[in-house]
Fold this protein.
Amino acid sequence: VKAYAKNVRYNGKTITGIVLDGRLFDNKLTIRRASVAKAEGASLMVKGEAKGLVGIADLKNVQINLRAPSVQKLARLVGAKLPPRVAKLGKIDLSGKINGSVLKPAVDLTFKGGGATVVSKGTVSFLPLVGGADLNVSLKHGSLKKLLRILGVQYRPGGKTGAINLRAHVKSSAGVVNMN
């Protein structure tokens, strides 16, 4: 299947450069490229494979790349309401890979926004009863003071602060979150 749309109107906005290049054969979906060139300034590209579509699909090398100059504009386009604080993130970038069962995929994702870089590697479960995550997470920001302001934390350090480089192993399940 190959499809291309130069311009599409959605919620009163124009989305440009929609591309779908994929193949569905023998219970396997191969996406060579699924992309949007511009939607409220944002771009999206996805490629990879999903096998076993009749049962529980297994993802292989699903790559995601999302760039947006404004999270709020993108949210408005899809009709989502975000907390006002999200506007302070400014330009965002989400990229990475997903592999494994759709119920508990292995993720390797990098998020950039508000001057911070967050890298998450591990597994995330989407099963309600045994859901949870097992992730190694790192957070880097050039200024602790600016990061706290973006997050809405009222604490104001009395002296000079510098950059922050935080690493944690996060495990969660059924309402419990453990961080090391």
Observations:
- Residues 103 and 126 are 5 Å apart (CA to CA).
- Helices lie at 71-78, 144-151.
